[in-house]
Write a structure and sequence with these properties.
CATH superfamily of the largest domain in chain A: Zn peptidases
Largest interface: A-B, 96 and 95 residues
CATH class of the largest domain in chain A: Alpha Beta
Radius of gyration of chain A: 23 Å
Strand content of chain A: 15-25%
Number of helices of chain A: 14
Shape of chain A: globular
Oligomer: homodimer
Helix content of chain A: 25-40%
Strand order of the largest sheet of chain A: 1-2-6-3-7-17
Number of strands of chain A: 18
Distance between the termini of chain A: 9 Å
Structural class of chain A: alpha+beta
Chain lengths: ~450, ~450
């Protein structure tokens, strides 16, 4: 089967216009999975994805009933002796607030200076679309794929993948695969591409401190009422010390050290200047005395994602609020069991809850960290594909983010896992003005094709 | 002039129906001074107040141009030799959020179990209305007042009285008075009334910490980005120590100790049980080792009125926000200069701002604390009036809240000041479901009449 770079390039150019039309259609669905009032849009989006794959020749199922629908597609035309590759992506997106900071509406994609601006432009609709499109195009134009292919495309990645987690155990036979590619990550720069061999895990929480049963007047009782805002500040300040180290007992226990040989293969050495330039952030957070990659890839965190209490509107209001709350998440690394970390965090917060406050800690979601060996066949195929498209060498890296579902997918499919994608540090995913490059969509298409060729041994 | 309790009682009963009708009219104006979109309602409310006083025989002016209108009313019929009493109140109210916690709409007054529920039912429209109504009724039914009377009714008390503060210096001749009654406070219980001889001052702030110029992904940069939420928590935790003592250098300098004789006159001795019952709050806040009254009346505070940063909606969002903010206010006591305290607080916050954050501290408003001697004639007249109406003895007290304008009023008018009113600890002022008693409206009417009689020496 002709899957040379050149033939994939003509395949892409021949359909460039409809490719971007379809991509924009996908971006227009406000498929925000965490906000219940978008449920109908999430549903419509899942139908669109299913139809796209079905019309190209995939056998498609929509798994419903456990949450937002999961689209499962498969093509087994290579026969039972051939190996199977499973691709994972998601069609749901993050919330869009603060809306006023968007330069163009988040669900009306717009191209400015070669970048597509929209919520999900990168995470994950962009990367999902070039993957689906490459697989469908090869199937349509070559009449077959070089190996068996499956796809799982879920609608709850941004809210802990609850439905898929619940369904995977009973779908083990269907999702079984030799290789598993999670196309939902990025690299430091296009000039020096990398593929990912691991992600951090996560454990998320909501913390609420209740004081009085109603808001109080800060004059009438200021001096005797314990202010929940103060209690929250005192409690959260205790969780991390002045060196950026998490103080929760047992938090760092059992963390797997990376063997020196593996460590040497990783693309490390980001400087503080690069951090500032690529991420818009000076590296002053986290544990002191460690390199940037160590802190983002190899060490866990305790992060306050949201703070809320009392009056936050215009002017001021002399209130001692009835309650104050925080959203918290910990990034985890191999060796940390998310369930155990959840227990440790809850226990710590409850133990340090200031006197007279009622504390409520809700566990929101969790997932383990995951690492594949850099010399595994799937890693080699991905590295080769990225090298082909970039015309340069490709390294391996870890990923600081979490894809909570990746461990479940890896266990259910039994496949070797790799993480790749064309995300870059300043794509503003999870933030206003998310964007993704027009040319990266093209590269993604080519890379998926070449990856499949290398994996099937038909490169 | 017949201003006996009995004659005032018939005067009230004869007009009971129209009294509550008018009171409800006043409550229906959503005159929230801190939120710009209510400006037209604030304006309409000021006209209603002005017309109410004018139709009873007062000479009325509306002072405009410096902010929300101020209503100034005067009656000088007692002649230049007679003394003048100046009453102060305000027609603006606090914001109403969280709206969903109100059992009936905040601007549609409703009587339940003898209490009127509405924003401003007590603070200050209720207390303002019984005051205005008593003065107007005496003037209409007796044809005169027993002494000269002035009223200043402003529309910005809940947002620092900026307009009145600005105008008072140029209105000194008009507002000159021998006595000044601020009818905007309360007492511990109706069974043991008190009048106030002092208020705490205030200094308010908005604090914003800026990290990156956009929201960041807590996976991609968690471990290197300094999270503004964490920076805010660390910074604010430093301002108060584990004994509830404010750590800001110089904060307690110069505080005037109350002489033991004056201290003995104060209605002290609230127990922890009473605090819990009357205020819905166990006395675990503030400085340890001090009595409840000391903490609320004689000591300053550092209170976090609002906290806001990152994602606070449903579910969670793995964000490291670009900024986090807090609203802060300090209650002050005699001897603390608000301007100096503002400088000290700003200096402290700026000095402890975590590395890599940009800090912005805005001064929002301030006012000094104030105390009158418990044996001053105006205090005696007020104590006598409350005794008459309650049929029991009346004490003196301080007030933990602040009426930032009271010092300006006291200086501009040159009058002896007293603070009184029928507020109770569980009226939920500044909170959802604010309410005020039907019978307290009656008592207020009678008390204002008797106060005037005692003050004029015609009791």
């Amino acid at each position: 089967m002709d899957l040379t770079l050149r033939s994939l390039e003509s395949m892409f150019e021949d359909q460039r216009e409809s490719f971007f039309e379809r991509y924009f259609q996908l971006l227009r669905f406000p498929s925000v999975s965490t906000e219940p009032h978008y449920a109908a849009d999430v549903e419509r989006c899942s139908h669109w994805v299913a139809e796209f794959l079905q019309s190209a020749g995939f056998t498609v199922e929509r798994w419903t009933g456990a949450g937002h629908p999961i689209v499962f597609a498969s093509w087994a035309g290579a026969g039972p002796a051939a190996k199977t590759a499973l691709f994972y992506g998601h069609y749901d997106v993050q919330p869009v607030d603060p809306l006023e900071l968007w330069q163009s509406p988040p669900f009306e994609p717009e191209i400015r200076a070669g970048e597509v601006y929209a919520r999900g432009a990168q995470d994950n609709k962009g990367q999902l679309f070039y993957t689906m499109s490459a697989l469908c195009s090869i199937l349509k134009h070559r009449g077959a794929l070089p190996m068996n292919v499956k796809m799982i495309i879920e609608g709850e990645e941004e809210s802990s993948s609850a439905a898929l987690k619940k369904m995977l155990p009973e779908k083990r036979d269907q999702v079984r695969a030799d290789y598993l590619a999670v196309v939902d990550v990025g690299m430091k720069s296009l000039a020096r591409p990398w593929v990912g061999v691991g992600v951090r895990g996560i454990a998320a929480f909501e913390l609420v401190l209740h004081g009085s049963d109603h808001d109080l007047h800060s004059g009438m009782v200021g001096g005797i009422a314990y202010n929940p805002n103060r209690a929250l500040v005192e409690l959260l300040a205790k969780a991390v010390d002045e060196n950026g180290r998490v103080t929760i007992p047992g938090f760092y226990d059992g963390i797997e050290e990376l063997p020196p040989a593996d460590r040497a293969q990783l693309c490390m050495g980001t400087t503080a200047d690069e951090s500032l330039k690529l991420l818009g952030v000076a590296p002053f957070g986290g544990e002191s005395g460690l390199s940037i990659e160590e802190r983002v890839w190899l060490r866990p965190t305790f992060e306050i994602n949201g703070l809320n209490g009392g009056y936050t509107g215009d002017g001021f209001k002399t209130v001692i609020p009835a309650r104050a709350s925080a959203k918290i998440s910990c990034r985890l690394v191999p060796g940390q069991d998310p369930i155990r970390i959840q227990e440790l965090v809850c226990k710590f917060l409850e133990a340090h809850c200031p006197k007279s406050m009622t504390i409520e800690v809700r566990k929101l979601g969790s997932g383990s960290a995951l690492r594949t060996h850099p010399n595994a066949p799937i890693v080699k195929a991905a590295v080769a594909a990225f090298s082909d498209v970039a015309g340069t060498s490709c390294g391996v890296a870890l990923e600081g983010g979490s894809i909570p579902i990746s461990l479940d997918l890896s266990e259910a499919s039994g496949g070797e896992i790799v993480f790749f994608g064309y995300g870059l540090g300043d794509d503003q995913i999870h933030a206003p003005n998310e964007h993704f490059g027009v040319d990266r969509m093209r590269r993604g298409f080519l890379t998926v094709g070449r990856f499949l060729a290398h994996l099937a041994g038909s490169a």
